[in-house]
Amino acid sequence: MKNNNTFCRGNYRVYTAKDASDLFKGRDLYIWGAGQKGRGFKLALNRNGFPVKAFLDSSPLLIGTEYGGVPILDPKIVLNNPKTCKSSFILVASVDKKNKEMFALCESAGLTKNKDFINIQELSPFYPTVEISGVCNLRCLSCPRGDSAHLPQKGGFMTADYYSRVIDKLIKEIPFLYLVDLYIWGEPLLNPELSEIIKINTNLGIASGISSNLNAGKYLEDVIKASPAQIRVSVSGYGEKNYEITHKGGRWEIFYQNLLLLAEYINKYQTNTIVEVYYHVYKNNLNESKQMRELCEENGFRFHPVLAMLLADHAFDYCEGKGLSDEAKKAGDLMLIGLEKLIQNGIKERHKQCLLNRVLPVINWDMSVMPCCNYSYHKLADNYLEISLDDIINLRHTHSLCVKCQKYSLHRYFNPMYYSDYVNTLVC
Predict the structure, then answer these.
(1) Are residues 133 and 186 in contact, defined by beta-carbon separation less than 8 angstroms?
(2) In Å, how far from its chain's centre is CA 150?
(3) Domain 17-123 identical in fold to domain 129-427
(4) Average of per-residue pLDDT across 34-42
(5) Quick one: CATH architecture of 17-123?
(6) Whose CA is closest to 414, among 317, 328, 320, 316?
(7) Tell me: the pLDDT tens digits for 90-118?
(8) What integer pLDDT is reported at residue 149 of this predicted model?
(9) Contact 196, 216 (CB under 8 A)
(10) Where in the chain are the domains?
């Protein structure tokens, strides 16, 4: 199939330490955004010989605290002081919508984009993700892992030894690499070597991102002790009645106890780990969101409601005329916005870049490379250690999965930010 689109390919420059030095010109460096991205980028700057003066963040929970010995300040301290502004270079580290707001504030303070401030993506344009666990303990209704038609033929765990080889190659190809997500579809907490993998990242100045259903707690304390930068927790209800419908195979009591242990271990080891609770909003759990928000506030977690969606494999099958499995239909009946409407919303944005064109390489637990993290399993290359980053980019651009995905406008389908205002109105 000929690929006439370029939405999954970006012409991005990977900066070297010298490139960055020429850009910064010896000015004080401030990172605007003290979350997962900002914390990771602080480590990447340090690894390349650049100290950070301070973080900037508007969160009352963070202002006045510190991370890694670096204070977290209100952005006004820099932006409202012309003398400080003149001697500063600001690195913006947030999501796209928030980035634009930060850019506008920088410009209002007299700063010039790409001269006095820049998005950290410009220096490190790619977000590698590594599936360290090829197995999951749940069969959630909306996830392809809950449907045998999309399961890989086998699953397993990436060892710390192999991960070390992977990360060494990634750093050589992306000098300012600052974050690696250690998950795609599996459950990271099932991997007995997860804490060692996190330590490998930390020793190299790389932040570790984890996503968990918190139904596996055997290694939880060791993992928190290793100090991951952020843990994204997935939940879909408050109490067993609704949670155990959509998080099929999960047990509310186990989840609840592990969530409390998570707070306890973070406090015990003083890790500064950010916990972001992703509350998947369905029709049946809307009235439970307040309780989950309150639980998050009590434990110092961030509450992040998101629109529950059938994931991309199901949307792809639907567009291909294959229909949906019984489990996917059950999830679809509970969704606030139907699958057809979600696909149509994606079509409205079909002219835009792929939402995941920066997420690469996507490395499976067995060292193979996949073209996309949004689909359950398709092979791009046999072994990440034996293929260059440039070749991965070129192969993905022409891969049949990417071509078909663009054909159906699914490169704009799974877009939680598109629905954030709608969801926040419902749960607030």
Answers:
(1) yes
(2) 22
(3) no
(4) 88
(5) 3-Layer(aba) Sandwich (3.40)
(6) 316
(7) 999 987 778 889 999 999 999 999 999 99
(8) 60
(9) no
(10) 17-123, 129-427
Report CA torsion sign: 104, 109, 110, 111.
negative
CB 370 within 8 A of CB 377: yes
What is the spatial distance between Cα 16 and Cα 2, in angstroms, rounded to a whole number? 35
Structure tokens given for 337? 């916005």
pTM of the model: 0.87
Closest CA to 40 of 55, 25, 28: 55
pLDDT (average), residues 192-203: 96
What is the CATH number assigned to the segment(s) 129-427? 3.20.20.70
End-to-end CA distance of the chain: 46
pLDDT digits (tens, 9 = 90+) for 112-147: 999 999 999 899 989 999 999 999 999 999 998 776
Q: Got the DSSP string for 196-228? A: HHHHHHHHTT-EEEEEE-S---TTHHHHHHT--
Q: How do 88-92 and 302-307 pair as beta strands?
A: unpaired
